[in-house]
Design brief:
mainly alpha; single chain; globular; 13 helices
Length: about 280
């Protein structure tokens, strides 16, 4: 039975969560509202929340004249490629560690995480030298390889914990029913760890989408530039156009939000969904 004290506590909890949600969501709303304001609105009354005159001129200028659409396409291609390759490699590696190297699994996963002990700036010169000798400087493939070197170790470490939760009995039952190892892995094991795969994919995609340092170092042509570097280049202009900056920021942030909203239902899915035959 719910008491009056419990009801009051629930009300305060909901109010507190609503306040936190507003605080977290307001910067994105502010950027979106500023991106549809005219230059006069931004300079005359920058603290005004709602635009006095609604316009899409900032987006059109950023996309058509500044070539931001090409930068978005570059970031999408690199981020999606990195995410897909990292998920395929890390899922097979994590499954192999759990099933074929159970005693060394924890040690191997910890060794993989040690790659994150080094700050990215410390590895900038070695990566640049390696990519230069391989002829992959100023190429999207080279940038994907660099991103994979950071994403795969963490993804393997993250997925090892999820694969450990899959009972071995389910795989043995599938083998008895005639499924081979590949069918068992793809049709039985992967659906059970789908929440972990989705969470890892989100982490990999957002990191590749927002990465700045190696994109700045390895890419030196405008047509291959990613959105993070293109956004930074707007700050280096002699006259900073806040309308263009807000529009470009919206184009950078919105894809990550849309990507998360598109797959958030899978995150809430049960870890053992479909385990019962």
């Amino acid at each position: 039975m719910t008491t009056r004290r419990d009801k009051i506590g629930n009300v305060f909890c909901h109010v507190y969560l609503v306040i936190l949600a507003v605080v977290a969501f307001f910067p994105l709303v502010w950027v979106l509202l500023c991106s549809v304001k005219t230059s006069g609105d931004l300079t005359s009354n920058p603290t005004r929340i709602l635009p006095k005159h609604f316009t899409l001129e900032n987006f059109l200028h950023v996309i058509n004249e500044l070539g931001f659409a090409e930068n978005i396409a570059n970031s999408l291609l690199i981020a999606i490629s990195t995410t897909c390759i990292a998920i395929v490699i890390s899922s097979m590696a994590a499954y192999g560690i759990v099933r074929f190297f159970p005693k060394l699994g924890s040690i191997m996963s910890k060794v993989l995480v040690t790659t994150y002990m080094f700050p990215p700036i410390l590895l900038a010169i070695p990566y640049s030298m390696v990519m230069a000798k391989a002829g992959l400087v100023n190429t999207r493939i080279g940038l994907v390889i660099v991103y994979l070197s950071f994403s795969v170790p963490y993804a393997v470490w993250m997925l090892v914990g999820f694969f450990k939760t899959v009972p071995i009995g389910i795989e043995e039952a599938a083998r008895v029913d005639g499924a081979n190892k590949l069918q068992t892995f793809v049709q039985i094991v992967l659906p059970l760890v789908m929440p972990g795969i989705v969470a890892t994919a989100i982490y990999t995609f957002i990191n590749a989408w927002n990465e700045f340092l190696y994109s700045l170092i390895l890419i030196n042509s405008t047509e291959k530039m990613t959105v993070s570097v293109a956004l930074k280049s707007l700050q280096g202009a002699e006259i900073l156009n806040w309308g263009d900056m807000m529009a470009a920021s919206s184009l950078v942030v919105v894809p990550s939000v849309v990507f998360f909203m598109f797959i958030q239902n899978k995150i809430a899915g049960g870890m053992t969904e479909g385990a019962v035959k």
